[in-house]
Structure prediction request, 78 residues.
Amino acid sequence: MANRNEGEGNRTATRAYDRHARDFVATGQVAEKAREAAEAIDGPERRDLERAEARGKAHAREEDRLLRPSASKDAGEH
Prediction:
């Protein structure tokens, strides 16, 4: 079933993500991890995190035309 094409909105992946998110919340570590993330953003890791974010957005921009700056012009075209 893992190789089955489910089209747009992969339900199997969604269920797996939801299950993992619930499991993580159940560990009670959400506040701790949020604090660690805030400290990383405010600390020496900031530049590395910003570069990683920019790389991720660049990949997304290549894959999703709606993330391009000209998307507002293209939005009406289907």
Q: What stands out?
A: The first helix runs from residue 11 to 26. The radius of gyration is 18 Å. The chain has a mean pLDDT of 83.
